[in-house]
Fold this sequence. Notes:
Order of helices and strands: HEEEEEEEEEEEEEEEEEEEEEE
Structural class: mainly beta
Radius of gyration: 25 Å
Strand content: over 45%
Largest sheet: 9 strands, mixed
Shape: flat
Number of helices: 1
Distance between the termini: 88 Å
Amino acid sequence: xxxxxxxxxxxxxxxxxxxxxxxxxxxxxxxxxxxxxxxxxxxxxxxxxxxxxxxxxxxxxxxxxxxxxxxxxxxxxxxxxxxxxxxxxxxxxxxxxxxxxxxxxxxxxxxxxxxxxxxxxxxxxxxxxxxxxxxxxxxxxxxxxxxxxxxxxxxxxxxxxxxxxxxxxxxxxxxxxxxxxxxxxxxxxxxxxxxxxxxxxxxxxxxxxxxxxxxxxxxxxxxxxxxxxxxxxxxxxxxxxxxxxxxxxxxxxxxxxxxxxxxxxxxxxxxxxxxxxxxxxxxxxxxxxxxxxxxxxxxxxxxxxxxx
Length: 308
């Protein structure tokens, strides 16, 4: 009996090591965008310790040189961070959401919107595939998001002609503070299908989701700026007829929101309409253009000056 104890312990340890190695192998997939590279000439666009990112002349893609190993990143655009890089591509084959607007009788106004629901459609459309890899060539994570959606109006359970269709999301991507920022706006038609979102990704994947609002029209003059530590993001809000209604501005420190304000346009002026530009100083002070002036956020204080 005593002789069997060490054998049982060894068996358990062996089984655990086998299980761990299999489990670990399933989470160490190779990055799908890299291939071997030889000697490459070009200019360095980023350096992170012993990792150098090189842009070859007259060629799409990038070369990553990690110590004495080099590989080619086959992508026309990529975002590079101290922890790795992110590539986005457009593919096919993902089921898109369908937004259903259900109308019914109202004793006062007649036909009224009762609710909006989301259904899974059989239609497959374009998908945005965002893939993150580390500099050893290992896949970190990937995210799939539909680039289009279906919409449909129903009155008393019946679908009427010309009251269905397809729309697309407007997507803005940029990087700042070690994170990838991806803004997703409903295009046209919107019909108040839901709120627009800003997704913030880091080494571990999605780290923050910020609701941007549910507006009548797609935003205009969307802009993004970063100094490497602080990031500025803003856009103009439009009325249902396309006239300016105001703007919304965010300031981030890394992935954390430090300033979030909606500027509604006063009746007497156009002074709180986003002009579509912004900048961040090394100290984290954010300056952005409002149509008749300039807004500035610095050290917890916001100031507006006309004619700036």
